[in-house]
Amino acid sequence: MDVLAVTDFPDIRIKSLIQSAHEGSILLLPREGGYLVRIYVELDKLNENERVSSRNITIDRLIAAAQRILHPYILEVKEVAWWSVYEIGQRLCDKFDDVPDAEVASRLPHIFIAGDACHTHSPKAGQGMNVSMQDTFNLGWKLSSVLLGRCAPKLLHTYSAERQAIAKELIEFDREWAKMLSAPLKSLTDGEGVEPAEVQRYFRQARTLHCGNGDHVQAVAHLRRTRLSASGQGLVIGMRFHSAPVIRLADAKSVRLGDTTKADGRWRMFAFADRQAPSARSSRMRALCGFLADSPQSPVHRYTPAKADIDSVIDVRAVFQQSHCELNLEAMPQFLLPRKGRYGLRDYEKLFCPDLKGGNDIFDMRGIDRNRGCVVVVRPDQYIAHVLPLDAYADLWPSSMASCFQKLERADLFAAVEEGSTPRFLLRTL
Ligand SMILES: Cc1cc2nc3c(=O)[nH]c(=O)nc-3n(C[C@H](O)[C@H](O)[C@H](O)COP(=O)(O)OP(=O)(O)OC[C@H]3O[C@@H](n4cnc5c(N)ncnc54)[C@H](O)[C@@H]3O)c2cc1C
Hints:
Bound molecules: flavin-adenine dinucleotide
Number of strands: 16
Structural class: alpha+beta
Order of helices and strands: EEEEHEEEHHHHEEEHHEEEEHEEHHH
Number of domains: 3
Strand order of the largest sheet: 9-8-14-11-10-15-16
């Protein structure tokens, strides 16, 4: 229930899990606006084959249960903005499309399901809508890439493979989480139940799941996991690209790198520079830009349709190590200042520097090797497809990853990382 209430409970404006000795538990979430509060009250278990509607549960019963749980604190409900009673069910479909596993090699999917239609669980992790939207983000870029003729239709098989694995992980978390939230306190029983510290630890453990940075390890079809930095903060293949503050070179504006890209179906390459100034002859960043701009092997050239803007399929961004005050825009590779659109206007928004003044150096935050730099290839749904040294041109768009693009013959998608080879060079890189 969402209520306006008067209470002497001091943590009414802090997300709280309140476990009473004998009256059950509530989850309390302060709502926007400063006054409203959501209270999840867990009621009795239903008998087998019983439906919640047969219990005729009223709002007064909910309020009374919340008051008992909060006792000795008082809870005077002044107004109920919304309330509902529902049954928690943990359910997961085997496939999120219409092709059974045995027929994947011979049939393309034509029907897809997403969201609560294929996975449901308790609302206590606050993930149902989030995960549902990520399902459709995943499906959206794949459908549009196939419909635009950029990618082979086989790409569509990866939707179910990737998202079903994520939903499974979420439901496993939720099963444990829901059990913990309704368990009695260990200190009040003969050892059965949970301690608050255990609950906090479990929630913290799953924090990447809650903030949408969930580990896609098993979930990103055809990718292998590689942890790139010993500190664990690095850029990990199969995880979502983790944003950080940076300064945009052209206008010295502080922005978040992840927020500078739109969800528009384009692939991104974030090139993190080596120590050299980009004007230096020995700059690896300069050499990379030369390759991307001029080489017939450049994936940017190979997959960008004639007459389209140079960044219309693969959008390359650069992050330098120097402060924005030290770099001269005129000395930048022209590839990073492309002229676009009807008037050939220059795009000034592809060059970034660390936020040194704010103490947020993205190179330190993500554990990037300052001597070698690196390139991070990011899928349209922001998951990292590949991480490699600035000068590993041949591996930049390996045939297995490139095969998702329509022009190529092989269509087993994004098998970007051959097991065994990538971890070694990635460890050297970051
Ligand atoms: C109390 C509660 C709190 C929650 N809190 C959170 C939260 O904090 N964070 C979070 O991420 N998630 C939360 N969730 C989960 C979230 O609401 C769902 O996961 C999300 O709404 C699923 O979206 P959906 O589009 O898949 O399904 P729905 O939102 O259920 O949309 C399906 C739509 O289809 C319509 N429909 C059904 N049958 C037909 C038909 N035959 N013809 C036409 N239309 C039809 C329905 O009316 C509905 O509008 C909460 C859920 C509950 C119950």
